[in-house]
Amino acid sequence: KASGMKGSELAQFMAQTKHESWDHSRLQEKPVGDPDRYFAKKYDPTLAPKTAKILGNKVRGDGAKYYGRGFIQLTGRDNYRMASEALGLDLINRPNLASNPEIAAKIAVWYWNTRVKPKVQNFDDTVAVTKTINNAMFGLEDRLANFVDYKKRVA
Known about the structure:
The chain has 155 residues and is mostly helical.
């Protein structure tokens, strides 16, 4: 609310962050098995060159360094760099800062205001909102259920 969000926009923000952070309980993407290998397969230029290019991951190890963190899972060197510049934080050299709840909240609001809000015309449209956060639409049903729940709470 302090950021100025209200109504459907606030409900979507809460719904999306709830899904992205496992019901607001985890501020780090959870790897399966060995973390370095898991994140390398998903985000590193050596093993996942297309994804790495989209995320701005340039060198081996960037996948394990700049994996998803926060209430909206900030992922990739470019996203960490942009958040760093916007918020005056050194997330490039200290990416774990994005897991700090206070900083994660600032990143989530920054991300929302710069990436989500400009692209969404109707905050009642969970598909449109989700697409700006997770283009693959993972967890759409959960995000929609969260939105319905939060919409009742903020009305």
